[in-house]
Specification:
Structural class: alpha/beta
Bound molecules: ligand C2E, calcium ion
Order of helices and strands: EEHEEEHHEHHEHHEHEHHEHE
Helix content: 25-40%
Distance between the termini: 40 Å
Strand content: 15-25%
Protein name: EAL domain-containing protein
Largest sheet: 8 strands, mixed, barrel
Radius of gyration: 19 Å
Length: 278
Amino acid sequence: AKDAGRNQVCVHSTTETDLPLTPLIVETMLRNALNNHDLEIYYQPKIQAKSMQVIGAEALCRWRHPEYGEIPPHHFIPVAEASDLILPIDAYVLRSVCEQGARWLADGYRVRMSVNVSSRQFMQPDFPDLVRRILRETKMDPNLLELEITERTAMQDVDNAVHVLTELRNLGVRIAIDDFGIGYSSLSYLMRFPVQTIKIDRSFTAGIQSAVNQNPIIGAIISLAKSLNLNVVAEGVETVQQFDFLRDNKCDEIQGYLFGKPVPPTSFRLTSFEASPQ
Ligand code: C2E
Ligand code: CA
Ligand code: CA
Ligand code: CA
């Protein structure tokens, strides 16, 4: 509903119904959804550019509402983040992802599982303990778990972030800085964080129109990251031109609709792609 009041959230569901709902109603519905297991986790592949292997999967949650259909995260994650409800949601996602990663590993597939961590969850003093407990209970290989922290979250309190990231690193998990490049970090901060990966924000990928003649920023980000020995992932890759440019500029991993949208784990492709897409 275009004219919903200031305190209302417009939920555009897959049934195309506009739902002017207050954050409180969304929060209540979401709490029920969590209890009823109506939150589903989809996985989007990350492809290693030089080998075309599927080496990772990012977990992205979906809310399957009995009446309103599938509600995408940007309608409910911000509501959840405004309350403590994001904490049990992130914990639920983390546990489910570790269970899935352990299952795939048992089937012989080493898939690096990436999970988004909200700022509020990251700031919880017991967050590293939660991760440790879930790893133990699910018997997930810590080396196969990657936590995606946005650049904004990491920059909110740099000293605390260094401390928490170090604790997480000591558990053996990997850390990725998500939505990188949109203006919060500087090189000196990036060097202080014990991270292995940066994910170039989708807005940069979207700016790539051809395999040559580019906005120099994205190439500069990649070479900066490479000089720090970081793994570089580009997200939002939709075209062959974008793929070619990124591979030619030594971007390590590619994620985007070109290779696959987020899908339920049963539909996730675990085998490598034969050649670059056409
Ligand atoms: P994000 O972490 O930056 O995730 C990438 C988003 O880009 C996802 O949107 C994904 O579906 C979308 N995407 C991937 N490839 C393409 C592409 O080629 N083109 C375009 N146009 N989009 C692409 P999604 O699934 O709607 O998630 C939105 C955001 O919601 C995520 O952004 C993340 O910040 C948050 N989110 C999703 N799941 C969770 C979760 O379990 N916990 C938390 N805390 N946040 C989550
Ligand atoms: Ca992410
Ligand atoms: Ca991102
Ligand atoms: Ca984003």
